[in-house]
Amino acid sequence: MTDTPAAVALTAEQIEQFIGGYASAFGATLRSPVWHSPAEAGLDFQEITFPSRDGVPLEGWYIPAPGSDKLIIANHPLWFSRSGLPAHLEPWKSIWAPSGNDNEVDFIPDYKILHDAGYHVLAYDLRNLGESGSANGGVISAGVYEARDVLGSLAYVRSRTDLRNMTLGLFSRCMGANATMFAMRAEPAAFESVRAMVAPQPLSPRVTMEQSLAAAGIPARYIDKLEQQVRLQTGLWLDDMSPVEAARSVNVPTLLYQVRDDVLTRPDDVQAIYDNIPAEKDLFWIEGTTRRWDGYRHFAQNPERVLGWFNRHMS
């Protein structure tokens, strides 16, 4: 039997570099490009722009489904754009390879599925990401400030005479899910005409940072130092950015799903978010993978459960 070599301990300097680099990503966003277009799937669409609740210009697509009175608003994950993430290309490939997520996520097939199922789709870039405007000094707040974008998307829909009477649903992933929950806490009345939400893979930054430290071989006690560095970038404590408490304000039927063995988070975090939701709810786990990106691709490969949730609550 061959002994497995012990992991090489990082030096103090290497730990400092890791923590500084991780924290700086919350203060200087690496934007994912809008790499794909609905035209690639043969979809007609409009290029749209609208303001966030606090005036930040947001860029997006409106994909009409003629004859339908149902619309899905898509709120994308952290580091992504409305089209997905080209993690098969540099610099994203090197960033995400250690977690096994060095492969592309393309959301255009998702929009095609929704469209063909009879839903209009509005997909847009959250602030500081994709082609939308910069705000709050460029910081990422894991949903706190991005909640204003969710509210802006709802206001935009209600400002258009052709959309204001639509039955609405939300497809809010990762930070998009966090942002939606923070928005529900801030302005619950804004969601009165929303009939359903699907919220894959929400997460608490503290948990994913603890996981990242462990994966790098850095002792758990360094989470306090990392939190201080993130706070210097964002002005926020880690628990300020967790959706666990905001989930208590979710006021629409909500379906959550999550890669159970996702190396970037832990099941107990998603379970805590789910447990706090007071509305009708359901949760399922994606098994057999540790790659978070597989959770984002799940809908395109297995759309039945999500479509069933939307159809049930939006009909």
- How would you sum up the global shape? globular
How much helix, percentage-wise, in residues? 25-40%
**Biggest sheet: strands, sense, closure?**
8 strands, mixed
Proportion of residues in extended strands:
15-25%
Mean pLDDT across the residues is: 95
The name of the CATH topology is Rossmann fold
Q: Output the helix-strand order.
A: HEEEEHEHEHEHEHHEHEHH
Uncertain segments are 1-6
Number of strands: 10
Supply the CATH architecture.
Answer: 3-Layer(aba) Sandwich
Helical segment count: 10
Strand order of the largest sheet: 1-2-6-3-7-8-9-10
Which helices and strands appear, and what pairs or packs with what?
Elements: H1 12-24, E1 46-51, E2 57-63, E3 70-75, E4 84-85, H2 92-96, E5 105-106, H3 108-116, E6 120-124, H4 147-159, E7 167-172, H5 175-186, E8 194-198, H6 205-215, H7 223-234, E9 254-259, H8 267-276, E10 281-286, H9 292-301, H10 304-314
Parallel strand pairs: 3-6, 3-7, 7-8, 8-9, 9-10
Antiparallel strand pairs: 1-2, 2-6, 4-5
